[in-house]
Amino acid sequence: xxxxxxxxxxxxxxxxxxxxxxxxxxxxxxxxxxxxxxxxxxxxxxxxxxxxxxxxxxxxxxxxxxxxxxxxxxxxxxxxxxxxxxxxx
Length: 89
Description:
By secondary structure, the chain is mainly α. It has one domain. The protein contains four helices and no strands.
């Protein structure tokens, strides 16, 4: 059952990347990262988003893959926090 939810979440994020505003895709991806363990699909889909719609940001030294890097950092830190929370309970 979890695998079906994971696949549906990935498809929903893909549809949101293609047809909805960017902030909806970010919210869905970060919710998936928090809900599922090791949700690398969100990182890959946000990389796709950066490849399709990304522009260079002068604020970030011309980096093109801002949402990809942010989602990767959030995935790693959330997995560390999840692991620590599970050990304490």
